[in-house]
Design brief:
Radius of gyration: 22 Å
Strand order of the largest sheet: 7-4-3-2-1-9
Low-confidence stretches: none
Strand content: 35-45%
Order of helices and strands: HHEEEEEEEEEE
Helix content: 10-25%
Number of strands: 10
Number of helices: 2
Mean pLDDT: 86
Length: about 140
């Protein structure tokens, strides 16, 4: 590009910014859709068990968990108990320091993982979420709590 092209580009950019128009809704929707593809390369942990759907026969007699979810992929397994508003979980088959809870709006909350693979999210607001297992590791399917 020449200096004249640069000047023209800056002129056009300045004019566009001066318009101060709202972003069209369809463009915002498209941008959100593209944003969801940012984790397409992450390994997906499939839901293999959900006590809200599958029947637990003789597995737990105490009834302490309101809901049990189990995700797996390869050697990695994540088990999550939804107790009240808390999510108590355990990861096996992976060495990691953190599990991230993600909301559809992109909000992320971290939980440290102890030496046994256990993690805890307290007072989780009801709605859809998924878990990121470690930094750049596998991701669970979206699920509702």
């Amino acid at each position: 590009m020449t200096e004249r092209d640069d000047d023209r580009l800056l002129e056009l950019l300045g004019a566009a910014l001066a318009m101060n128009q709202a972003v069209p809704a369809e463009l915002s929707d498209d941008a959100r859709a593209v944003f969801t593809w940012r984790t397409i390369d992450a390994e997906l942990l499939s839901l293999s068990f959900d006590s809200a759907v599958d029947e637990l026969t003789g597995v737990r007699s105490s009834g302490t968990a309101e809901r049990l979810l189990r995700f797996f992929s390869g050697d990695v397994e994540v088990e999550v108990d939804v107790i009240g508003g808390d999510l108590e979980g355990m990861v096996t088959g992976a060495q990691l320091d953190v599990v991230r809870l993600e909301r559809p709006d992109g909000t992320l909350v971290d939980s440290d993982v102890d030496e046994h693979g256990r993690f805890l999210f307290e007072a989780v607001e009801a709605g859809p979420l998924r878990l990121h297992i470690g930094e750049g590791g596998p991701v669970t399917e979206w699920f509702l709590v």
